[in-house]
User: Fold this.
Amino acid sequence: MARTLEGEITGEEGEIVVCPPFTQLAIVKANIHKIHLGAQDLFWETEGAYTGEISGKMLQEIGCEYVIVGHSERRKYLGETDAMINKKMLAAFKSGLGPVLCVGESLEQREKDQTLEIVEKQLLFSFAGVNAPNNFVVAYEPIWAIGTGQTVEPKDAEMVARYLRQIISKRYSESTASQGKILYGGSVDGQNVIHFMQQENVDGVLVGGASVDAAEFIKIVKAVDNAKG
Assistant:
């Protein structure tokens, strides 16, 4: 997958990050030069007796530049709380990794018109104690759209992305908000990605299921490059 992608891109496209499972990080790192490496999770302690956990320091040493934090599947199936996610955010910054923070509402919360309230709470709680952040990404991934084939309307994704940027601007500064990237994630594919990339405040996409299909992922990369180029 990584080799195929490397062969299809010029290196002039926007930043491309792949986040394989822990067991594949070293292998992927050895085969990429134009692509950036990220991990799917990290533990919040740097060292200690935490059998099976992977620290930010370990990820940084293997060549990771980014790490996904607070993915909805970890919140849902592994019981990750906002407090745990905040610890992971702090650990990522401390380790020199760029966190990719995932925020998003459930279908029930959406139907109650609580989307903005939920993403604001998640964002502010996750960034608690973080001063002057840089090299960070916030991904809006509505839980009900992940892996279901359903997506939000592009204009709704833009509304949430704009709101997230406003929150970051108020919490820190406009320059900080402009440096961070806002992504949309949730059943993104080669057909619908262009509509999200046409939105002013959507800087990119967080790709799930489509990322395991090399041809489809390359299609998405090309579409993003054309839309933002």
Notes: The first helix runs from residue 2 to 8. The radius of gyration is 17 Å. The mean pLDDT is 93. Residues 2-228 form a domain with the TIM Barrel fold (CATH 3.20.20.70).
